[in-house]
Amino acid sequence: MTMLSTLLLQSANTITVQIIFALALTLLLSFLKLPEIFLFGLLSYVHPDDVAAPNNTSSGLKAAIRRPGTYDAAEPNKPRKKPKEKFEFDEQKAQIFRIKLNDSHLRTRRYFNEFSGAFNSTIIALSCLLLHKFQPVSKDLGVLRNGSAVPILLGLVCVCRVALLLAKVSWEGSASKRSERQLSVLLGAIMFLVGLNILFGVVPTCILDFDLDSLDGFGKLSIAIFMGCIAGFLYVPALRNARAFWIGTDQIRCNLSIISGGLFSRMLLYANFLMALFTSLLWFSPFCELLINQNIDGTKGSYLPIRKGHDFKLAGNLGFSRSDFDKFRVWCLLISGILQLVSLRQNVQMFLNEAVLCWYQRLHASKVPQLDYSRAKVFLHNHNLCLAVLQFFGPSALILLFLGLSHTRDDLLTNFRLACSFLPCSALTKELALYMAWFVVFVWATLTSVVLALYRRGIIYVS
User: Fold this and answer.
1) pLDDT tens sequence across 5-47
2) What are residue 59's DSSP bridge partners?
């Protein structure tokens, strides 16, 4: 009786702590305004319609819509003369203004409320999952009584929210081309078929180091559909990520400090790209064999005896033990997600600088500058700032959320009856959450690498 009362008291304290912690963090984030602080100080640009008034004595911005007859009354009608062939470059029309964004600027941008909500909800879900990992939980009372339902529900809801926002911004007509949206659908269909082959065992474990045989048929089909959707949603953001890397690391050799980033920004972009590429390779079995020492007993940490008479091979004789290698892969996933989140400001700044590069190219492309296209691009990049922020933020949020869900305790998800009423219980496993975290990194790194290769070969270019 005493043990039962102790368990009930512990369960009540656990679920109370989780609920109070989530509510307190929600209230705190509403006052801190972390999304505004996170984006504060970014440099945006404004391209004016004209910088000179009709009389050369005055200067200033020309209104896009002005009252008829403002300058006509001041100047009488004169016979028109044939213009001369002489060309004079008007420097006043070749100006662009830089604005340092603050709170009032950010709130007027499209999708800022969506980004703010996704950012705050991701922090709350990750914090609750982190608290759940280090909080003592009794497994005998079930997932609802011991408070584990709070972080799991928050994590799943946040994953769905971020995925839906990625779908919404990826299909935005003013921010992407029609061909890009068509290619995203094609990529989603291809990755759906690839997911079916992986989940139904067509791709053997000698290629991918995943064991997902516990999933039933409906669970495998549902996860394959989800994989195709995620891959399609990540196509347009991966294009932006590749352009940001190409501009931020000055691969076009423009040598303009206003466009490319500084040394720290370049190192961060390189580290983010290389870490995502390296992490995506850690679940391929041939690459795993190079890093796992099969002569180490993973249970005891001791070295197994090597048979004499066999040639020494590098693969399988050097590296980590199996348990240490599994921990190393998880840490690489965590570092990759954090690096993508840290480099978000640099990527968004390169997105804004892309419009400046377009303006500079149009300014020097011909003797008579045609700045209508660059003016429209500067406006759209300034207007769609938070849309690009969501596209850069979504992959890192998904990686961290899936990784947090993969670190719930072994038998908690199988007893989660509420989720089992909507999804197969076998689909809610730790291995599946880890697989989805790796899949997001793999798709992100692969698409970025392919686009960068096309840039390098000159097949596509930034304009």
Assistant:
1) 444 445 556 778 888 888 999 999 988 889 999 999 898 888 7
2) 52
Rounded to whole angstroms, how far apart are CA atoms 382 and 388? 10
Q: How far does CA 76 lie from the centroid of its chain? A: 59
Separation of alpha carbons 404 and 334, rounded Å:
9
User: Is the CB of residue 244 less than 8 Å from the CB of residue 350?
Assistant: yes
Rounded to 10°, the helix 430-457/322-342 angle is: 60
Neighbouring C-beta atoms of residue 446, cutoff 10 Å: 16
Give the number of other Cβ atoms within 10 Å of residue 91's Cβ.
Answer: 9
> Taking the domains of the chain in order of start, what are their residue ranges?
2-63+92-457
CB 251 within 8 A of CB 455: yes
DSSP 366: S
**Mean pLDDT within 438-449:** 96
Q: Dihedral of CA 12/18/21/25: which sign? A: negative
Listed in sequence order, the residues at least 6 apart from 43 whose beta carbon sits closer than 8 Å to its beta carbon are: 98, 99, 100, 101, 349, 352
Tokens of 456: 């390098």
At residue 237, the pLDDT reads 94
92: pLDDT strictly greater than 50: yes
